[in-house]
């Protein structure tokens, strides 16, 4: 059970820091087609609402999906939620 699961949506929003609320409005672009040091540092050091893929990230559907899953695993490991 998540720590804020029992709260209403307004209560959940009230419990989010201003820094985190601001970060949710920012989307980050990540380079490459596999997890790398730059992507990991971005995920670990900054708060943002989602990840943008561009034509350099999307080469084959299977590779893009594998990359997304690697990023999601890293993000979930540190307890964050992002949109792709």
In short:
This protein is mainly alpha-helical.
Question: What is the strand and helix layout of this fold?
Answer:
Blueprint: H1 9-14, H2 18-23, E1 27-29, H3 37-45, E2 50-52, H4 61-77
Parallel strand pairs: 1-2
Describe, in plain words, how this protein is organized in 3D.
The chain has one domain (17-77). The longest helix has 17 residues, at 61-77. The protein is mainly α. It has helices at residues 9-14, 18-23, 37-45, 61-77, and strands at residues 27-29, 50-52. The two termini are 24 Å apart.
- Numbering strands along the chain, what is their spatial order in the largest sheet? 1-2
Number of helices: 4
Q: What is the overall pLDDT average? A: 78
**What is the global morphology?**
elongated
Largest sheet: 2 strands, parallel
Number of strands: 2
Measured by DSSP, the beta-strand proportion falls in 5-15%
Radius of gyration (Å): 14 Å
Structural class: mainly alpha
Order of helices and strands: HHEHEH
The separation of the N and C termini measures 24 Å
As a percent range, the share of helical residues equals 40-55%
Described by its quaternary structure, the protein is: single chain
Overall domain count: 1
- Low-confidence blocks of residues: none
